Amino acid sequence: MVTGSGWLLAMSLSLQAVAMTAWSQSSNHQTASLTIPQVAQGPKRLITTDDLIALRDIDSFSLSPDGKKFAVLIRQADPVANGYRTGWFIGSTDDGALTSAGDGGEARLMRIMTGRCGGDLVGSSSRWSADGQWIAYTVQRNGEIQLWRSSVDGKIQQQLTHNEADVRDFAWSEDGRTLFFTVGSTRSAQRAREEKGGRDGFPLQEFQWFTEMVYRATPVGPVETDLTVWAVASDGRDERPADAAGKKQFEEGLRRGYSWGRDYSQTMKVEDFGGSGAPPVVGKNGVRASLVRVDPSERGFLPKLRLTASLRPDGSQPIACNAEECVAQIFSKVWWSPDGKQVIFWREEGINFSDQGIYSWTPASGVVKPLKRASGDRFKECELLGQRLICVHETRLQPAHIVSIDTRSGRTSVLADFNPEFKNLRLPKVERFEWDAPPDTVRLGYSKRAYGYIVYPPDFDPNKKYPVLIAPYGAQGFIRGDVGDEQPMLVYAANGFVVLDTAFLLPLGDMGAADGDTLYEKMFSAEHGFPHMTMLMESTMRGLDAAVARGWVDETRVGMGGLSQGAMASLYALQKLDRLSAVSVSGPSLSQIDVYLETSYGAEIAKRIGGGVKRPEAAEYWAQIDLADHMDSIEAPILMHIADREAIGIMRLQYRLSDARKPYEAFIFQDEYHQKWQPAHRYAIYNRNLDWYRFWLQDYEDPSAEKADQYRRWRALRELQCLNPRALRAYCADNNKE
């Protein structure tokens, strides 16, 4: 459920990770330590949900000052303990050899600048001592976030601070003998405030969302910005508030460790996404590279930016790069070559930013050269090391790993693989395909072409008819579970489905030019037929049509589902079309209740960062797109996996579905957010989604005894579906549609 101003933030956050503050919430169980096993080559087998849930992810990456080593924080889900294993590793940039550097502590949830959490997990950054012998980082353990360090040989892991408040940011002194860090309110002060509110009541104006009251009645405030600087010796002694000189060293230390993104001292705003809020990048002899808006009048959060440079330390006589490659809406990173003669830049490009390009620009001559381009694959973090880039990389069939890219030849080689078990999995064939997008009727700036990937089942036979599952949202990086990680696409394929991993088109033109209110008004204009919802639905269906034209799609066995806009498009398709035979979503369709979930204070906070919008209140407006008002249009059974904080959004829908005797099942997950973060929950959703689609589209029931009750319920739902005149499949003996 994306409500109020949340729709704009959800769109922007799906495009680019931004600088955010870590807020922590641990699972209820401790997990074993994380290891990277040695795995011998063996016979290949099909992938399962057990393989997918146990993937090791890279949460943090940094290079040592001399470039000889990298540090990574690895995270692995444990659905049995409902927690995460985490661990720090030091790797060689020559051969990728890994050394364990200690436990990473409890997994933490990411908070955006308003203080709200969407369910994304975040790891601590690591910062290197000047001599390259230590990394410093934060660890959450037992509800506290403290500063730690590890030696690069893995022999020492040491807690440095024992502060009464959580550590927020940190920096090394230039000589490496001191670490400076910031803290906010003490944990005891925060507990006292909650206890007082629990006794006396919290003022309504402290809440941003009414869902906070329904869930726990404790307000979530914006990220605290009134911080205090402290200092601690690098061996953990003498922890104390910093004096004026120490505060200055902290600022200088942050600048030394700063490489890209926003100015750390400024509050991130929506319009800073894409790199427009980044300060100049300084190279040898003081040369500078900057991003400037092509059109200063653009008011959107992804304006077009142009790369510029100055070969003078004072920034005078700027040189604009006039090549087409030097203009983009998202620049992921910019570097200077070691000799200060070339600017290396990494930008997002292609349909819906489906591609990435890394280029070099020589300001003195104006020459721009492509160094590396990736389509579908994703570089998630990169650092320049001489003539090489060391990057966190994903392909469509390989989860995150560390690679080295030769900037002269473009050759990529794997340095470190954190999921060696994958080499013994029989993974499917994947094919990119494209199609013409629907007309951009109100000129929002959608691409004229759309794209996706066909994930084929094993032993695919083009002469057969196959059930098809559509995951309609992301289509970038490793094929996992689409946005929200609830649709185990590779496992679907392993179980006989053709999967269409398609990407929603985004209104990139107006996302650069228009403010939030104007953009929303055009995207969700009732007068123009709700252009954004229509674009998402029709573009996805055109992708399905492109697959149907190949001759192997069973059009009576098509399923679709997803999170957020993925749920919105799936349910809108149920309302408008008769194309689906099963749906699984993580939330309801848009409805009038969305208008009232954000408090006036929440709207004010969102407006400060450029994310607030004003929505219509009229019931007549919402009745046009709320599935609860279109029961007669529903042709397929619906499965819902709802976060408890968002459960209020399905009130009308579940009531109307029950009253109309439509087949549906809904599950509510405790202590969850927009994206489910708890491993046990994601594992349960993986398996139930697989069972759901196999039941409705393959007529298959898992014989496991523990699932007997599930299938009893679903067989009863099937009896209801027999009564549905819009059903595409014949489920009962007296229904002769097939």
From TrEMBL:
Organism: Steroidobacter agaridevorans
MF GO annotations: serine-type peptidase activity
Alphabetical list of InterPro entries matching this protein: 6-blade_b-propeller_TolB-like (IPR011042), AB_hydrolase_fold (IPR029058), Lasso_peptide_isopeptidase (IPR053536), Peptidase_S9_cat (IPR001375), WD40 (IPR011659)
Entry-linked SUPFAM superfamilies: alpha/beta-Hydrolases, DPP6 N-terminal domain-like
Keywords, sorted A to Z: Signal
Keyword Signal: yes
GO biological process, one term: proteolysis
UniProt protein name: Peptidase S9 prolyl oligopeptidase catalytic domain-containing protein
Keyword RNA-binding: no
